[in-house]
Each structure stands twice: as C-alpha cells, then as structure tokens.
Amino acid sequence: MIPFTSQRLGDLELEIQPDPMEAPDIFLGLAHRTPTLKRLSIKSKESPHDISYSLSRWIETCSGLEKAHIPRRWQTLDVVTAFGSLPNLLEFGIHWNQSPAEHIGFGQDMEIVQGYFQNLQRLSWYSNIKDATDLLQQASRGFKGLALDCPKERRRAGVVAFIATAAQCCPDLDSFSLNLTNFVDGMEPYEVTNSIDFNLDEDIEPYEDPELLDLEIFRPLLACRGLRELRIHSPGPCILSTSDLEEMGAAWPNMEELVLSPRPKDMVEDQGTPISMLPRVATAFPRIHLLGLYFDQSDPPDSAGDLLPEVQFRCLRELHVGSSRIPSGDPAAVGLYLASLFTVGTRPSIRAKTSIVRGQWYHDTALFEEWEAVERLVHRAMRVKEAVLCRLSDRRCLCMKLM
Question: What is the pLDDT at residue 89?
C-alpha cells in the first residue's frame, strides 16, 4: 500500500489489525510521504508500547494535519507530544471504544503545555475527572468542543467541578460530551467486537444519593449560549422538569443534538423521562434533529397526542431510546403517540441505541426488535396522517374555488 500512497493525500483512515510488526512498519513507511494530509483516523487494538515511537516519527512530518483521531489507549506522552507540535491541528481526539485488558492503565497522558496545541479548538480525551479539570484550568485558551471519556467516575462533586470549569474556561463551547459510565456492560458496540469490561478501581467514593442526572449537575453549561451538541452519559437516568426544559431551551436556542443518559447502568422502571414530556422537549428545542433519552417505563403516553405544529418536532431525524423499555408495554399506543408529534414530511428513525459522540454509538440488541416494531407503526401512522391532511387541504382548496 505504502509505495502507491499519493503525496497529495488529504484524508486517511487506517484500521490496523493486532500485529507487533505491522503498525510500526506502516507508520515509519508513511513518514515524509503525506505532506498534504489534513484528516487522519486510526482504529486499532495494537499495544501502545509497539506504536508510540513509529507513530510519533510519522506524525511529526504531517505539518498540515488539521484533524486526528486515534485509539484511546494510544494517548501516551510521546504520541500526544507529537500531535501537539503540529502548527495547524484544530481537532485532536480518541475513538471511544474499549481496548484489550492488557492495555488498561495506558492512554491517560494528556497535557497541554506552552508551545503545543497552539491552534487546537476541539479536544476529545480519556482521563480521570481531576486531571481533566486541571487540564482545562492550565490551558491558555478556550475550546469550542470538549469530549471527555471518564468511565465509572462516581464523585458527583468532581463531575460538577469539571462541568463548571469547562463552562468558565470555554464560554464559546458549541459541543460538549461527557461519559461517566461503561458502555460495554451488556451492550454490543457499533464497529467493535469482543467487549471487555474496564476493570477500573472500585475503591471510589459513590455518588451522592440519589444517583440521577439532573439539571443542577450541568447547569453551568447554560452560560454557553452557542451550545449545539450536548451528550452526558451517567450511571443513573436523567430527570428533568418542565421548568428545566424551559431554562435549557432559552439558553440553547440552536441545540441540534441532545443525548442525556439514554442507557443508564442503574435502570429503574419508574425513573427516567416520561414520554408525555416529549411535546415540551419539541417546544424547547425547535431545531433538534437527534434526541437520546431514557423513558420511564411506567408512564403511559397521552392517548391522543397533539397535532399542533408548535409542539411537534420539526427537524427530528433520530430518536435514540437507549435501553428504554416501551412505556406501559404498549407499542401501538406509543407508535401513534410519537406519530402525532412528528411534522408531516419527516420520518425519524427510532432505535434502541446510544450516541456516545458524533459518529460513534452502541446498540442495545435485546430491545432492537421491540423499538423497530414501534418505528414501523410510527411510519405507517405518519403515512395515514399525511394522506388525511392532504385530502383536507384539497377539500379546502375546492371550497375556496367554489366561493
């Protein structure tokens, strides 16, 4: 492959199979062969020990690189330093998936020192919550996008402090993602196989009771008026009131992607977002096109729904329900209710999956068929609704002509 690599290459995606010799040879062979490379994505389960030197030597020759994503465990000091030396790098991050068990404990060497990452605008990294907070305080600039992977962090005070620091240091944030849970437990990840639980330190102070995600945890982000994407994954489901949604909608008028703990680790049937709250979500976020929530299984949908345009989702393309059971166990009622909340001409997908960060998600295969049946009912009801509204419109036009 390497002899045929064009020196005008702008985009490169590498997926490297575990082989102690393959990755280093590829990286050393690419050195000085990719002077125009702008965007780089690497996926691999290779050991960070085997690639740090060769990857760093190659990256240092890619002076035009603007965006880069690497495996989470490759976030070592040598690799981070190499990427940090690039003058044009705007976005640097990790792929949020698990690594082989023998690599656990590696890949938390993220630091921003003077003279490095001079133009970085978006950062996605793996860290404990305290080091992540310190990094933001020490950085000499604000970021537009932050995504922190911090699985099994249980100190509520630490989470609140990190979010407050992010809002204070990065007032121009338009994208914020925070993972506090382990997605591989009982799930089949998209583009990842052989899931392995992160055997992280269990001797951690537990969350304050109750273990729920609520507005008070991420309230500081309300000051970031340009926020368009918000994803927070916590062990407990998200509980929001009508007044919470009104505050959030007023603070984030351009919100497009909102994902709030759709796959909590501690799933309780009578906790979560009531599906009857969806009209208020639609009103608060008129531009939303991706929504991820965990629904309260015990809360039935309103029998009639609402056909008023102001409480319908105008732009919604995807509804991610994570590990939610069908509310009240009635697919037909849920399907008809959801159809009443979607604007004519739209066909949102409804999936038992969880969007971790943009472009990466996990499926909950146990619930896939249940929600796929709901989606079919929704689309069928939408076709009927559109046909009825079209006929009513034709009759109205005919009446106008007769007058």
Answer: 97
Check if the beta carbon of residue 87 is closer than 8 Å to that of residue 119. yes
In 3D space, the residue among 31, 37, 32 whose CA is nearest the CA of residue 64 turns out to be 37
Residue 125, helix vs strand vs coil: strand
Q: Would you put residue 63 in left (φ > 0), alpha (ψ -120 to 50) or beta?
A: alpha
- 47-87 pLDDT, tens digit each: 888 889 999 999 999 999 999 999 988 998 999 999 999 99
Instruction: Answer yes or no: pTM beyond 0.90.
Output: no
For residues 331 and 377, is the Cβ–Cβ distance under 8 A? yes
Q: Which of 91-100, 339-348, 372-381, 393-402 has the lowest mean pLDDT?
A: 393-402
The CB-based long-range contact list for 140-145 (8 Å cut-off, 24+ gap) reads 140/112, 140/114, 142/169, 142/170, 142/171, 142/172, 142/173, 143/169, 143/170, 143/173, 144/170, 144/172, 144/173, 144/174, 144/175, 145/91, 145/121, 145/173, 145/174, 145/175, 145/176
